[in-house]
Each structure stands twice: as structure tokens, then as C-alpha cells.
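Reply to dn_fold:

You asked what the input looked like. This is it:
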Amino acid sequence: MASSDNNNNINNHTHSKSKHQAVSTMLKHGFISDYFLSPPLPQSPSSPSDPTRPSPTLFEMMSEEQSLSSKPTQMVQSTQPQIEKRVEKILSTAPFQNPRNWGLGFGDVKLTIASRDGFSVSMDVHREVLIGRSQFFKEKLGRRSGAHHSVEICECDDVEVYLETLVLMYCDEPVKKMVGEGVVKILGLLKVCDALKFDDGISSCLEYLEAVPWSEEEEERIISNLNELHLYSTHEVLQRLPLYPSKSSKLDDIFSRLVTGVIHAKDEKARKEMKTLVSRLLKQESDQNYPQNHILKETLYTICHKCLNSLINCLFEATSNDETRGVMSEIGRVADNLEWVVDILIEKQISEEFVQIWSEQNELATLHSKVPKMYRHKISRITAQLCIAIGRGNILLPKETRASLLSTWLDALYDDFGWMKRDSRTVHWGMIEEGLSDIILTLPLLQQEAFLMSWFSRFLEKGDDCPNIQRAFEIWWRRAFVRQPVAEPQLQITVCDYPS
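and this is what came back:
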């Protein structure tokens, strides 16, 4: 009889132990299955075998294995004391370590957290807290009561983050516990909170992220983490993030306001600084290959026409009145603004239409010749700017447009070149000479002759105050008089019959 009772006790104990182990194993695998908590270790790609290479000796294989196995061990030994110190600090103020101070009883769940390198920490926590704050624990432990349970989290990425998430479950206002933490730490907490379905923790992390400043690098990490976790909601933090492409109409409106503001700026120093800023922003936008050129084109050309009208009005007033000091300075400012907008058009590769418009400004060119060079030379910088771009092949135009541009503005460029050289801080006169040479050489030979012979006479008269385009002159001379004419190739057709 006694033997029968003993057998029953053993069977009950074995059944209880088996039941306890089943719960622990189930919870353990519940954690491991989550990718964010235990991602697979990266596998090194296998290199193809080389048949000519001799097989390694046993000594070499043992040495290599010992070398590889010692590296992680050395790393663990160097970092483990630091981890232990930080974990000890977290546990020293954790509510479950001092349950009486928090009005709690003794913990009824033994929780063990182990990292991949073998470091682990165990603590007694409260089932009621776990299932009350975490949907994951509620699903696993909600139907089990009475006895103690053992839960093990294996191969976790960061023991500290798990512990800190556990501490947050004991806080009525988790966000206050996060004050002073960095963005990277909060993102780590967010991942664990999401894996444990700890809703208060998730909302607290998002609330904290919404309220603190970020660097651009941190912003990229925030976007990446929210995308990975699929945390799409109406939370205010999303209003700070570019999760959706911006509307083209909004970009067009803001850009128009920026350029208009720069053009009408009263402070000269501020105008120059903002010109640089806007140009830099547009360059970044261009580098990202955003298809916005069609959006900005209409705005830019509207501004170009306004600048042209202002320039004509200034020149007309300057040639009609005696008191022209204020008007003269305005000519330089308007010309500088137009040059800046044209530079944007060239950068955006939408400047062909402007070259046609500029080549037709006969009235402006006539008024230009009546204004002193010291005030008007900035207008010729626009012509030089276009010649450089066309000469480099950045603007493709019919030969009629290229010839018209030179016919309208080349004399003005010759006259102003001396003043442009004096303003060498903003104008590289060597680039002007090179661009002018290249654009002339794109024309038919007869037009090259006309422009270059005119330059020859002008250079003899003005010397260094005239662009030096000897290179173009020499190339034209060789083309016209030295090289032999190219025979027109004859088209030959040969028909062959093949036996069927």
C-alpha cells in the first residue's frame, strides 16, 4: 500500500515537472520565433574552391579554428564586465527587486534573460503585471494560475533593453522613465515593446520620439524602424517624418516664394547668402533624381520674364534721366538676379527656351550700349554664362539660335570684357574665352569666318580688354585653308545570289 502511495507521488511530481517544463519551453520558443528579438546570425559567403590550391594541413586547420574561436571569447571577456555593471544598475532600482517598497508581493514568475554570448540574468517578476501590460504574456500565461512559472528568453540581442522594457511594465507613466535617453535606446525599447505587444510601451516610445530633437542620421533610423515594425498609425510622430512623397504643387509654391523673396531682398548680404542656400537645396534635389523639372520650369520662366522687364525699364530710365545713380545700381542687382535664375535653368537642363528669348532682346541690347560699362557689364555676364554652357554641350540648340545669340550680344560682350576681367572674383575670364571659342566653332565655316575676322579686328584695337580666342581662330584657319576637302562617300550596294 505504501509502495502504491509512493508511486502515485512520484507520478504526480513527474507530471507536475513535465507540465512546468512544457510551459517554459512554449514561452521560450514564443520569444525566439520573433525576428526582431533573435535575428539569424549573418552567414559568411562560401568562396569557390580552387583546384590548384593545396588542401590545408591538420595543423593549419586547428590553428585557424583556434584563432576564430578565440576572437569572440576575447570580445565577450572585454565587454561582459561593462554589461554586468549596467545590468546591476538597472536591477538596483527595479520595482520587482524591491516589491515591498512598491506594494507588491513576492514574484511568482522566474524570468531568465540570456544573450547570445552566454551572459544571463534571472529575477522573480509578477504574473499579474506581465499579463496586464503585455498581450504576449497574456496569451501565454493568462490561463495558467496557482503555481510558479519559469520563463526563459534566449539569444536576445541586448539584455539591458529587455530589462528596461520589463521595468517600464511596472510604471504607470513609462514615458517619464525614458527622459534623458537617446533616440537609439528608445528605438531598441520600441522593438521589444512591439514584440511583446506592450501597447503602453509602444505609445510611450512614439510619444517620446515625437517630443525630442533628432539628427538626420537618427531620422533615417526612425523611418527604417517604423517601416520594419509596420507601426502605421495616426500618431503625431509621423507628422515629422517624410513617409509619403511631397506634393509637386506645394514644392512649386514654396520654390516660387523662395526665389521671389531672394530677388526682392533689401539686404545685399542676406540676398547673397540666400541665393547660395536655395541653389544648394536645388542641387540636392537634383542629385536625388526627383522628376520635378516640369514643375519648376513655369515658375522659373515667369521670374525670368519679370527680371527682363525690370531690366529694360531700368535701362530705359537710365538713358532718359539725368539723376540715374540709384537706377544704375538697380541695373546691376536685377542683372545679378537674372544670372542666378539662368544658372538654375542650366543646372535643371531647361534653359533652351531662355537662350532663344535672350537672343531676341534687340531692344535691351540697344539700350545696353548707351549705359556706362561699369554698371552694365553684369548684363554681359549672362551672355558669357550661356556661351560657356553651349560650348560645353550642356545646352543643345539649332545653329540659327546659336548664331542669333552671337549676332545680338557678341559686340556687347567684347565691349564689357575688360570690366568683367576686373570682376574676376565672380567671373573666370578664361572660361568665357574657352566657351566663346567653342560656340563659334559649332557654326558653319562661313559664319565662323565672319565672327572670327570681326574678332581679329577688335582684338587689334582693344588688346587685353577683348577676349583672346586665338585657339578658335587657328582651328578655323586649318579647317578653311589647310586640311584637304573630305570626299563625299559613294554608296555601294552589292547583291549576291545564294543557291536555294
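The chain has 20 helices and three strands.
Hope that clears it up.
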